[in-house]
Design a protein that fits this description.
With about 375 residues, the chain is α/β, with parallel strands linked by helices. The protein has eleven helices and twelve strands. Helix 4 links the parallel strand 4 and strand 5. Helix 3 packs parallel to helix 4 and helix 6 runs parallel beside helix 7. The protein is globular. The two termini are about 20 Å apart. The relative contact order is 0.12.
């Protein structure tokens, strides 16, 4: 099988889409497939990708378009340029469905596809969203290249019915048109189907969980802490994952504890953390993000881990998989479901209300088996 794999994110980026792409490509190359992979120019490949059947095409992005990391303390002194950049980003998200970098990446991806592989024959085109504009570039390319037997759009989140950012109404119809250009649209959980209710996808909408290489954590890594340690890793969102209610609760607690947050670089996340660090003092420990495997080992030393559920029920944080691999109890809640008594029980070592995750369904080998089944189902339909 010859595969065209397209993504905006890859290792060493620390995001669900980067993890999704990295693990998928790793397993595809292990199975001996020939893969043309279009990726960001900063992508890094380890020895697992050392195969003559992998062809990497990097999408060039100028220095001005790359995400610049700003130290947490620098957020206190935002300049008017930062304010202008945020305005441009919001306008871009509203009218185009993605940030300026994402849109420019999609445009350059389309140009590279037309230039490099306009006459190539592919068994499978696999496009990973987010951003949605990458699916637009993929769909437009597939209109010019008719030699593609099966097209899969892997969607972590919907475009229009994603409450994180308000978008222009016409994007609802663009999303429907673009997704109908694909043979299959895969989403990670059944509850997410409602986010695509306007797209009229029928049987083409399938459930395929996010895939990971499962890690084995030894039992002796964890040793109970004298003072309770619990952690969170990731990003906060103003509308669907705002942790202010939980921080307000922590400010009222007299008991000693350490809440460790591995924070991704994000303006809202940093603003929240800076605000509550003043109130909580050394009880709140803010750490820079670390590599995923190292983070799982770090979490394995905690007494328990915190998951902030999204306020909407049709999106589930993928970090739950990493939490489960750490083998530490998971306390999962949002503003509506948070219970003070359950949290107090966790502080005392009573984890009877822990959140359970079935890890086997996220095994990357099983996930790629499901994608292969979709391919052969499509090819079988053509043969009939």
């Amino acid at each position: 099988m010859k595969i065209l794999l397209l993504s905006r994110w890859f290792f060493p980026a620390k995001s669900p889409r980067a993890f999704r792409t990295t693990e998928l490509l790793r397993e595809l190359t292990k199975r001996g497939y020939e893969v043309d992979f279009f990726c960001p120019e900063e992508a890094v490949f380890d020895c697992d990708f050392a195969t003559d059947k992998l062809h990497v095409y990097r999408i060039p992005m100028s220095q001005l378009l790359k995400q610049k990391t700003m130290p947490l303390n620098a957020r206190k002194n935002q300049t008017w340029q930062t304010v202008c950049v945020n305005i441009v980003r919001r306008v871009s998200y509203y009218f185009l469905g993605g940030g300026p970098r994402d849109v420019i990446y999609a445009v350059r991806l389309y140009r590279e596809l037309e230039k490099r592989v306009s006459t190539q024959t592919y068994d499978l085109l696999f496009a990973i969203s987010y951003p949605f504009c990458l699916l637009v570039a993929s769909a437009l390319y597939s209109l010019h290249n008719k030699q593609i037997r099966c097209k899969i759009a892997d969607c972590g989140d919907p475009l229009y019915y994603n409450p994180g950012i308000i978008k222009a109404p016409y994007l609802k119809y663009i999303e429907k048109i673009i997704l109908q250009k694909f043979d299959w649209i895969t989403i990670p959980m059944r509850e997410a189907m409602i986010g695509y209710r306007h797209c009229d996808l029928g049987e083409r909408l399938r459930i395929v969980p996010q895939g990971f290489k499962l890690m084995n954590i030894e039992d002796d890594i964890y040793c109970p802490n004298t003072i309770p340690h619990f952690c969170y890793a990731g990003v906060f969102y103003e509308k669907i994952r705002d942790p202010s209610f939980f921080f307000d609760f922590l400010c009222k607690l007299q008991e000693p504890f350490y809440f460790i947050v591995y924070a991704l670089d994000d303006s809202f996340t940093n603003r929240v953390l800076l605000s509550y660090r003043k109130k909580l003092g050394e009880k709140l420990l803010i750490r820079a993000p670390v590599e995923r495997e190292h983070l799982i080992h770090e979490m394995a030393t905690m007494d328990f881990v915190i998951n902030f559920d999204n306020e909407n029920s049709n999106q589930r944080p993928s970090k739950l998989i990493d939490y489960a691999m750490s083998r530490r109890p998971i306390l999962s809640f949002n503003h509506q479901t948070f219970r003070e008594d359950v949290f107090q029980s966790f502080l005392k070592g009573d984890y009877s209300e822990r959140y359970h995750v079935d890890l086997e369904q996220y095994d990357i080998r099983r996930v790629v088996d499901q994608f292969e089944a979709l391919f052969y189902e499509k090819i079988g339909e053509e043969a009939q």
